[in-house]
Amino acid sequence: MSDNNQKQDQKQDENRLVAERREKLNALREAGNAFPNSFRRDSYAQDLQEQYGEQTKEELEAAGHTVSIAGRVVLNRGAFGVIQDVSGRIQFYVNKDARPFAKSLDLGDIIGVTGILHKSGKGDLYVDLGEYQLLTKNLRPLPDKHKGLQDTEMRYRQRYVDLITNEQSRKVFEARSKIVSGIRKFLTERRFIEVETPMLQVIPGGATARPFITHHNALDRDMYLRIAPELYLKRLVVGGFESVFEINRSFRNEGLSTRHNPEFTMIEFYQAYADYKDLMDLTENMLRQVAQDVLGTTTIVNTVRNDDGEVLETFEYDLSQPFTRLSVFDSILQYNPDITAEALADDHAARQIAQRLDIDVKDGWGLGKVQIEIFEKTVEHLLQQPTFITEYPTEVSPLARRSDNDPFVTDRFEFFVAGRELANGFSELNDSEDQAERFKAQVAEMEAGDDEAMHYDADYINALEYGLPPTAGEGIGIDRLVMLFTDSPSIRDVIFFPAMRPRA
Fold first, then answer.
1. Rounded to two decimals, what is the model's pTM?
2. CATH of 163-336+379-493, one of 3.30.930.10, 3.20.20.140, 3.40.50.410, 2.120.10.30
């Protein structure tokens, strides 16, 4: 049978099942309230497992605990069925009086049951159906209970079905929630204040990225979705909030890939009277603590798989060990033995190196930009173990403070692990005149055709003129961090509703 014929048969079967279930729903409507909301549970499946799982069959029978649970029917076979709620699963027993009710159920129906808690001969907890009620009729058949939702694209497009049938997906998103909570706890315990800044901005700033443009009708002006909260957070530091953070949604009008989603989550935090080295120390400690609290270990394992799910390679990262720290310049030399320090430091020679690497060198690039392109082409993807890359050229760091020892570079770092950039931080530029000149240089790049260059933000310059204390700031990509902690190969695996290309 051809794939098309098989899909047509599957669609016909699905349509038949949906029609049968709609008939049941119509019968429920005729009988009364088809969607009741009067049932109240007092117990969760996992709580019952933890509280009573060790008790013997005889002990439970003697105790006679009556519990009320609610959830989705994921198995309904013979005398026993299974309910799944947000915490886990528990069985229910279909006694003689409950048989007509159980026979009327379809997989996916949402029910509420009250009964006495027992343990089977196999040692499984179950609730004897005493009182029961259909709360929501499921009209669409669930995927096969063993295979789940196999189509990866459909898992992303219909996340609700994926979460119903795929326990691993639920665990990933539970871990995500705990990771965010752990970061929030770590920072608030160190006197950081959580704040909120505008998502709709007159001037997109805080990063070099192409923004989304929208229009405000009442103001009759174009506005931009935030690409980063940085400039507003530093305004708050000027105002006296010396340590602030925001767990924020940002938007960048860029491509889709396993590492990029146009709408993403990151945390940005700023600390007065600190520099980029202080934040590298803080980042190490925070990631260790969050990993220990969420995963129960500081050792993280990531796997590389082929399209069939076969493991090709395994990497292990021990966050308890000090992270490597290496400058951009030194990292290029370390990973490119054929490049000399003298050549890399010379504008003409560096351009020749870039061209040999098939890098399209633009006329307006300075030496710093050329060095970064060489780094991204030859080094970035090789940074498997946790590594801070430091001393980024000033040319590509318009908001970072110049190094006191070498004005060609800034007091900046990016954090890499598993060949991915997870964080970007630096000692902030608090010289308003220097910042104004760098904004002007960005505007010149924009006028030359760079649609990711920054705008000139006059109000931010005005804020700096009131005085920004010595400050360090950092942004960490939450989505990529969750990918690392949960061994997820794609950013779409850790975002509930990722951006998807339109169907044909």
1. 0.92
2. 3.30.930.10
